Amino acid sequence: MHTLDATYRRLLEAASFAARAHDGQYRKDGETPYASHPFRVCLVVRDVFGFDDPRMLITALLHDTIEDTTTDFDDLAHRYGHEIAGWVADLTKDKRLPDDERERVYLERLMQAPWQVQVCKLADIFDNLMDVTHLPVERQAKGLQRAEQYFAKLQNLSSPEAQRPIALVGQLIDEMRAG
C-alpha cells in the first residue's frame, strides 16, 4: 500500500521544482510567469483528460525544464528517476539543431514515445491553444498553425488511452478555426 506521502510528495516537489526552474521566465504575453504553463499542462492532464498517474503529472510539470532552463537529464533522473527524466527528454527539443531538423527529430521521438508522454504533449498543445488568445492576432495564427502541425502527427495514435485527449484537442482546434 502506498502512503499519501509516497504518492504525493514527489508530485508536489515537482511543482515547486518547476516554479524555481522557470523563475524569471514569462509567457509570450510578457506578463504571465512561465511556471503557469507547466502547472496548467498538469491540470489539463488531470482535470481535462482525466489521468491521475503521478508519473504523468510530474512529467507535465517538468516538461519544459530541460528545454528552457539550466536543468538537465541527470538533474531530473536524480530527483525523479530515469523513467520520468526519459519522458521529459522525449518532450524536449534539441536546440542545437537547425529548426527544420529539430522539429523532424522531435516529432520522430515523440511518435515513438510511450502513450503517457504523447498525452502530455497533447496537454501541452491544449494549453498553448487556450493561451494563444492573449496574443496579437498575427501571433495567434502562428500558434494555431504550430498546434495543427503537432496534432497532425498525434491525431492518428492507436493507443486507446490517447483517444479522449485526441478528440478534445481536435475539438479545440476546430473551435479556434471557426473563430
Write up this protein:
The protein has 179 residues and is mostly helical. The protein has a single domain, classed as Hypothetical protein af1432, CATH 1.10.3210. Helices cover 70% and strands 0% of the residues. The chain has helices at residues 4-21, 36-48, 54-62, 65-68, 73-80, 82-90, 99-112, 115-131, 137-154, 163-178. The chain starts with a helix and ends with a helix.
Give the secondary structure arrangement, pairings included.
Elements: H1 4-21, H2 36-48, H3 54-62, H4 65-68, H5 73-80, H6 82-90, H7 99-112, H8 115-131, H9 137-154, H10 163-178
- List unreliable stretches of 5+ residues: none
Which second-level CATH architecture applies?
Answer: Orthogonal Bundle
CATH class descriptor name = Mainly Alpha
Beta-strand segment tally? 0
Mean pLDDT: 94
Number of folding domains? 1
Looking at the structure, the CATH topology is: Hypothetical protein af1432
Name of the CATH homologous superfamily: Hypothetical protein af1432
- Beta-strand percentage range: under 5%
